[in-house]
Amino acid sequence: MSYRHASAGLVDRGRVRRFVFDGVSYEGYAGDTLASALLANGIGYVSTSVTHGRPRGILTAGSEEPSALVRIRAPYVEPVRPATAVELVDGLVAEPIAGRGRLGDPDDARYDAVYAHCDLLVVGAGPAGLATAAEAVRAGERVILADEHPDLGGSALDLGSPADIADLIGDDLALVHGSAADLTEAASRGESVAGSGDTTLLTRTTVTGIYDGTYAVAVQRLTDHLPARGGGTRQRVWRIRAGRIALATGWHERPLAFEGNDLPGVMLASAAVRYLQRYGVLVGRRAVMVTTNDAGHAAAATLSAAGLAIETIVDTRDAYPRIEVFGETAVHGVAVGEARYDADAVLVAGGFSPALQLYAQAGGRLRYDEALGAMVPDGCARAVTYVSPLPPSSHVPVPQGGYVDLARDVTVADVRSAVGLGLRSVEHVKRYTTAGTGPDQGRTSALLVSAAVADALGAPTGAVGTTSARPPYAPVLFAALAGRDRGALLDPVRETALHDQHVALGAVFENVAQWRRARYYPHAGESMDDAVRRECRAARGSVAMMDASTLGKIEVVGPDAAEFLDRLYTNVISSLAVGAVRYGVMCGLDGMVLDDGTVARLASERFLVTTTTGNAARILDWMEEWLQTEWPSLRVWCTSVTEQWATVALVGPSASTVLATLWPSFASFGFMTWRSGVVAGLPARVCRISFSGELAYEINVAWSSAPALWAALLSLGVTPYGTETMHVLRAEKGYPIIGQDTDGTVTPFDLGLGWAVSKKKADFVGKRSLSRPDTARPDRKQLVGLLPVDVSLRLPEGSHLVSADGAPLGHVTSSYYSEALGRTFALALLTSGTQRIGAVVDATLLDGAGLRTVPATVVSPVLYDPDNLRRNGNPAAQPGGDAASTGEADFSPADAERNAAENRPAVATPPVDALAPWFARFEAVTARTDGRLRLAAFPLGGQLTVRAESTLAPNATAVDAGRTALWLGPNETLLIGDGPVTGDAVVDVSAARVAIAVAGPLARRLLAFGCALDLHPSTFPPGSCAQTTVARAQVIIWHPTDDDYRLLVRPSLARYLSDWLVDAADGLDS
Amino acid sequence: MLLIPCPWCGPRNETEFHYGGQAGVPYPEDPAALSDEQWARYLFVRANPKGPWSERWQHAAGCRRWFTIRRDTSTNEVLP
Fold it and tell me: What ipTM does this complex have?
């Protein structure tokens, strides 16, 4: 039984679309929505309501639909969507939602996001929106015009006749089309693009929120209207920085509340007209019209002329007799007062509510207009205006009964009950009844709820007002918000220069802050414990090495550098001799340990500071904060060199032997000093520092040279060890890890580091706090060692320590098996810990035997070599030791050969260049786009940071004698290229960044996927540079010439950024 | 997403910045001269007004400069 009108509508009757709803096949036409196609097939019962389980049909003809919710199974998956907003495609499979609906269909579609900038954002492409956009285009402005429908035109399309539509909006439509940038695949293929390109037309795009200022977010549906999804992006989130926003969002018609008003067949009058004029569907045979305004009469006339019999028109302005709709799953009849009508449709013209949700989100005030019977805009402090005309005036009758919110199954009786319980505010009624909290966010029901509350309170509707609208305006998929940041791109992982070498050795990795670090290197058949014990034996017995490149490194340079470090560190730094290294502790203002590390004095006015892996950025910020905000008179400059220097720790009694082999001029030097040299043919800075208690060297070479150093050490039979062994070795010596053994409530004294707190200095950051009563009390938690009485029991880290009567005493911070001690041990923060040494405490343990406590003996945290004899090598080999046993004998040529064989990489060591693995993929992108997008690694040559007042304008570059200067800040310039340099402080950062060239006509579009800066030539002309972020990587964007951008990025993030660029390039096709 | 005017680099997204709290709370001239209560007030007590106030930001992903802006905490509007 077809309800399709013989001739009306804009659907394409030449193109049939087959679809399945609730297991049954139907046909519709191109241009239908699922709702119009269902109505054309006589299907009115579309879903079952959320809590009452009542049959529900189609109330509206737009995305404001509260009740006709369906689940889409093919050709895409979506758990809940109104049938009124689903474009009909061949092969569409949909099913009714019964109750709450469910998740479950796996979604393998792609989603992404893009940043956009404009002078004017117009929301809604009806006549008012088109006129507003056209005016701005004529004024030469950059315009974005967004509309949620497939076609521009909005309410003009309800006129039904193409000629009438063209008369109303044709000129404006032609103008905006002519100025539009073509964002389609055709453009990416290089086909001609019409217009200036400064107007962006976004159809099928819902502006879901206005956030701070005039920042708007929109969701564009790119593929749901296509019968088969290709590999393209399904939805794109637009993050729009607009100069101002014009809301041409029109208004929503609202229903009326009477008995039976939720039956399928009860529909808004304007929706019935739209189904006729756009889709050529008559929504019934015989209808009763209930109207509050003149528009209802006009709708009745239009529908009547098309063949829908209007049995009667109830105009509430004259009289509003009691109305009751009869039927089981469809309308069968309507009682109006004493009269009874046979009807299969009830048309409701309940008045109009301007769509002011976005206006309210932007802080716009609303006012109830008694004459219009609607909330209207009443001023907005931001550049956000409502430009649609106000709706026709309507009467707002007292709700009789039935439902006020179909989406949440809230009745008039529910509202009366809520008010009767004492809820006076419409916001409270909303929270109590849940009215307005459905997927439609109460767009059609809000004023009905207000009218019901007003009636129950005996107050005017205007005094009750409506609830506040908050983002999002329409439901947004989490997948769309996640966008490209999924899987491997979820969060950037920083890799050291030796990452591929660790992979080749079969390393098991762990994440430490943003870094991926090798945790241990299992040989065939080895468990983690086996591997760690072997690695510990090598480090304590012969020689082993670890990639320590993730340590934060900061060069602190300037005439006042020593004074500056004295103020930040708890101990004295200024007395350090050039060539020496000192361990130092930094506290926060509260006296708690912030970070620790070493300070090497490179020259009288130049220091190299190391930080813990996770704290590098934080400590640099900390230094800048003090320098800029408290001590601006100090002449000091801080530069991150974390990725300038790769660091390999060479550890063990035979470390000197191995080092001497690679360093022909090696001569032994003292503990806590450093020397420059050439190691394995590489310029190196070698520091004699030990984080294991053994004789050890930290060998620093340029980041890109690290693989060569590593390979040389491997070939000498040095055993690689990972972070797990590092932890065991340092814990055996009682060396705390800031952030693991501390938690921001621990002072240097609590850690037993009182020796590193100067008593002579008048002040340092945190000093005053160390004499506060709380920080000075003796019964604080202190770092101790713990030896479980059961020597094989490894206490879980985090185990609580309790007294015999169950009082909390602290917790285990680190816990390992010690190969050197032949038993387990732990570090813990224990109340009055130093006074408890020798005592036994209970540790809580939850395992297969349930929750229990186990005893452990409190000991000094230094469990191995307490007299520090081993930092000069094997004590037995030192003068006065056993002459027959030398350190070198621990590591015989045979040992070296065996180790070298066992630690041979499983695969060939990859090339040195961190970008190399990506060249091929870059080339594929370049080839696929016919060179319209060219990605390539770009060699930078030398890089120097110069700290002196910049002569460049902000964000500008200059080329001089073949070298390019990039402005990085008011007193910071990056020089790329070689040549002489003058300035207050110069730091070599040649290895600290690599560059990727992004070039071609599509370059700017690619970068817009990840860069929030406006790269339009009017604001970022050739010759510009900027420090910002692309995706989640901090970069310098250097824009030397048209269509040519270079991204300078830390080498540790190069693989992430390359991966992201290649992935984003796929998005250009959508 | 606030748009914060870095005095050097220009307006940038909030995500490029680190927040520095209330502006104009200087490190005391001589911390040792302060009573425990005065020191605790410097350490822990900050204003929390509704309306305009001055606060510090650092352009962490850009020029690393610290600066002060005025912002209305009730509207998030950055004031001139």
Answer: 0.97
